[in-house]
Structure formats: C-alpha cells, structure tokens
Amino acid sequence: MVVSIEYAEHYVWGDVCDGWHLLQRDDMSVIYERVPAGGTEVAHFHTRARQFFYILEGEGSLVFADQVIVLKKGQGIEIAPLVGHQFKNQSSADVHFLVISVPSTRGDRTNSAPAAVPGGEDAA
C-alpha cells in the first residue's frame, strides 16, 4: 500500500509539532515528523524500542546525558533501548524527519528529567 502524509493519520504533539503515522504495526512504526524552530520534546527513553531518526529537511539536535548530536539533512542516528534522549530544533527553520521504531513505541515511553547539556547548562 502506498502511503502519504496527505492521508496518513495525523497528530499534534507539544502544541506545535506534527506527526504522521506512515506505518503502525506492533513490531514496527514509521512516523514522519515536523518540528518548528524552537520546538522540543520531553526527555524520555524506551524500554523495548530501538529507534532510528533520519533528517529529511532542516537540522535537529538529539540531546543525550553526555552529548548533543546535531543532525543535518541526509543524516541519521540509531538510539538503542533504555538510552535517554530528547529531540530539539535549535535552528531557525522547520525540521522534517522520519522516526523508525522497532518494535513500536506504543506503551513504551518513560519521561525522564531533561538531559544535562555538556557545559553545565540544563536542557529546556
């Protein structure tokens, strides 16, 4: 089946961010997301799910306990289960990306304290 954000299930998170479920199965999910400039998610981890973030347009940051990784268009990163992370858009433009999760993160998310940004500042 061909999928498109034109007719995929849409949801809003963080009041200003968009997500479209391109694939929803118990063993895997693929979500297309848009985060505007300044947008951020709550720091969290997944007990079972392994995730892969891939940037389609723009630039996004993934904040971990010991580092911040900036991803640009055409770059991606794998996040293993139990690794705390927080996605942020610290750029001046929207970022569009895919999040692929195996298995699905449905019911597998634990919010945590914001990760400490290297340099001593707390993540917002």
The rounded distance between the terminal residues' Cα atoms is: 40 Å
Overall pLDDT level: 92
**Percentage of residues in DSSP E strands:** over 45%
Largest sheet entry: 6 strands, antiparallel
Rough shape? globular
Uncertain segments: 120-124
Q: How do the SSEs run, as a string of H and E?
A: EEEEEEEEEEEEE
Work out the number of β strands. Answer: 13
Q: What class would the helix/strand composition place it in?
A: mainly beta
Largest sheet, order of strands side by side? 1-2-3-10-5-8
Describe this structure in words.
The chain is mainly β and 124 residues long. Helix content is 0%, strand content 51%. The chain contains no helices and 13 strands. The strands form four sheets. Strands 1-2-3-10-5-8 form a six-stranded antiparallel beta sheet, with no helix packed on it. Strands 7-6-9 form a three-stranded antiparallel beta sheet, with no helix packed on it. It is globular, with a radius of gyration of 14 Å. 19% of the residues are buried.
Secondary structure topology:
Layout: E1 9-13, E2 17-25, E3 28-35, E4 44-45, E5 50-57, E6 59-63, E7 68-72, E8 76-79, E9 86-88, E10 95-102, E11 110-111, E12 116-117, E13 121-122
Antiparallel strand pairs: 1-2, 2-3, 3-10, 4-11, 5-8, 5-10, 6-7, 6-9, 12-13
Please supply descriptive tags for the structure shown above:
124 residues; mainly beta; 6-stranded antiparallel sheet; 3-stranded antiparallel sheet; 13 strands
Give a short synopsis of this structure.
With 124 residues, the protein is mainly β. It contains no helices and 13 strands. It is globular, with a radius of gyration of 14 Å.
